[in-house]
UniProtKB/TrEMBL annotation:
InterPro entries: LysR_HTH_N (IPR000847), WH-like_DNA-bd_sf (IPR036388), WH_DNA-bd_sf (IPR036390). The lineage of its organism: Bacteria, Bacillati, Actinomycetota, Actinomycetes, Mycobacteriales. GO terms for molecular function: DNA-binding transcription factor activity; transcription cis-regulatory region binding. Belongs to the LysR transcriptional regulatory family. Keywords: Transcription, Transcription regulation. This is LysR family transcriptional regulator. It comes from Dietzia timorensis. PROSITE patterns: HTH_LYSR (PS50931). It comes from the Bacteria. Residues 8-65 form the HTH lysR-type domain.
Amino acid sequence: MPLSARVPDLDVLNSLVTTARCGSMGAAANVLGLSQQAVSARVRTAEKLLGVVVFVRSPSGVTPTDSGRSILTWA
């Protein structure tokens, strides 16, 4: 698979960065003007394309994994 097929688009990357900054997908959704479900879908899309889990999810929010921190530095 070519690299371009595995790189998330800018909207997906923006959702990852905003989610990390906000600490939750719900808060990121408010900032981005999207539903929480849309942000969650974008995060899942990125994880599928990149083949890693980006965030540890909990009822209180999200925390980047080691792989997630590397991706967020790049994004």
